[in-house]
Amino acid sequence: MKKKLLLLILILISNVIYSQSYLGKITKQLNFREGSSSADNIISLLNPQTQIFIISLETENDYYNIIDIASDREGYVHKSYVKVGTVVNKSNESVFTPNGDTSNYEPEVKIFNSTSKTLTLKMNMMLYYFKPNETKNITLNPGEYDFRASAPGVIPYIGTENLNSNQGYSWQFYIVSR
What we know:
The chain has 178 residues and is mainly β. The protein has 1 helix and 15 strands. It is elongated. The N and C termini lie far apart (49 Å).
């Protein structure tokens, strides 16, 4: 019984570790690739000290899935050339504001990109792009969504939202500087 409990605790801890995102820096000039092997296409070269967003410490073929913060491009770099930095915590706040019932079963979300930058919004596995100062409506299935909002030069904002059926939501994306 104790062994089973210990194994369960270790599994839970490993899942938390691998689902955590981090900021990091590139330590040596390297190829930023579309996939997780040296055979994959090169997106660009990343220079030492380039700031990156590490989506997870879980690797594919020893490559981290990252976002180059300067360009807001997602790709892969070999983990041996990455210095892992501070943790990026998921937001505990609800960012999608309920704004009333709808006749549509699927939740409807009105997104306002209130910036001069192109917004990339990832909801689970779906990607949405918003031009500067663009507003779009998206319709999703009810349920829980892990989201990531990013833009060039901006540290991605991550969190989890639960969207209910027959509900409308709105969200205004803006940039906070510290």
